[in-house]
Amino acid sequence: MNKQPVLNILKDIFQAYGYDIETSYICDLMASRGTSEHIYIKLDQDIDYNSIRTFADSIKHTEGTGLYILSNTASDDVLDYAARHDLVFWDQHEMENQIGKAILANAMGQPMELRLNSSAFDKPISVFETLDVEEPKSNTIFDMFNTSPPPEPESKLPWPDTETPANTKQEVDHPTSGDVIKEEPLIRIQLPSMPINMEKSSAIKVAETKITEVRDFILKFIPYYSYTYDFDTKRKFRSKVIELNAQGEGIINAITAHDSFTRFPQPLEYIEVPVHNYQIKEPHVTDKEAIKVAQDAIIEKHSQILKLDEVKGDAIIYESKTVSPLEKDINITIILAYVPVWEIRGKSNSIDINAYNGHVMDEPVDDDVEFV
């Protein structure tokens, strides 16, 4: 299946319903209207349960609705699986119905109504209506069916143009819950980064509960060294031979050198960022320094204290010894990856929120030195 023509049709349909179409790393299209309505749209040709589950897991970190579209027929098992993962599901038949209804309503000048139906439950999940529908600009699917003369230029309202890049997000100068949010263009950059699973609006809501008077925000990319390690060695303590072996993973903040045994997944190769209000922080710790930090942490974690008692004459002698792997025994593989962090600034303080996992960060993750 050539996905792009189908995605172009879906883009025209959702734009006709009054949605702005944006790009997103977690789906094929994201339809947004206002500050609160977001529909994440993913299109597949064949049934892929891993794709459905991954898509559903990504949606859990957003405030939007997940619409999974299969351009083929599906069994009840697929419908049930999508429903269990809180996804709205369209198979080929439902997608054809929705496209046909939109084209017919547009051609007849009737009020256009979008129903996101879950086939598993056969009932509307949500309903959005656009009562005053303007004619879309040229190069859309509706042009084949529009026969009425175009309206006068002075009465024509602006419509999203399919020729214009629609990968926009929203920005505020002083973002509070009551502000009017403006659209902010995105750019795609090559950066090994964890995905952005927490939207700016969600981060601002969390920040409003912890700081007073949210005034500004910025998306920071904090460098981390992600490493894996293993070792298999032996140590001798008097007559005993102790086997030491282990494997694991960890991360090191490349600015503060803070280490933790936390796992990072494989980073994305590209990431979408706003044109303004983002910073890529510069590493202050070299990879060699990071390896030394990791070695010290691994040795401390896997050290063992052995106790031995020995009878000499009438006396019992107790002895203890700490055995540890040596630096030369530890095999380490290390890469540099970035973690997106929302810094929300208030009147007198600020808060950092991990945009990958949504956690409020208790320790400082950077200093004030950055490059863009």
Description of the molecule:
The chain is α+β, with helices and mostly antiparallel strands and about 375 residues long. It folds into two domains: about 5-165, Trna Endonuclease, Chain: A, domain 1; about 205-355, no CATH class. Helices cover about 20% and strands about 40% of the residues. It contains six helices and 18 strands. The strands form five sheets. Strands 10, 11, 12, 14, 17 and 18 form a six-stranded mixed beta sheet that branches. It has a five-stranded mixed beta sheet with strand order 1-2-3-4-5, sandwiched between helices. A three-stranded antiparallel beta sheet has the order 8-9-13, with no helix packed on it. Helix 1 packs across helix 4. The protein starts with a helix and ends in an 18-residue tail after the last strand.
> What is the residue-mean pLDDT, rounded to a whole number?
77
The CATH architecture classification of the largest domain is: 3-Layer(aba) Sandwich
Q: What number of structural domains do the residues give?
A: 2
Structural class by sheet pairing and helices:
alpha+beta
The rounded Rg comes to 28 Å
User: What fraction of residues sit in β-strands?
Assistant: 35-45%
CATH class of the largest domain: Alpha Beta
Topology (SSEs and partners):
Elements: H1 3-16, E1 20-22, E2 29-33, E3 37-44, H2 49-59, E4 65-70, H3 76-84, E5 88-90, H4 92-108, E6 112-118, E7 123-130, E8 168-171, E9 182-193, H5 200-208, E10 216-237, E11 240-253, E12 259-260, E13 268-274, E14 278-280, H6 287-301, E15 304-312, E16 315-323, E17 331-345, E18 350-354
Parallel strand pairs: 3-4, 4-5, 10-14
Antiparallel strand pairs: 1-2, 2-3, 6-7, 8-9, 9-13, 10-11, 10-17, 11-12, 15-16, 17-18
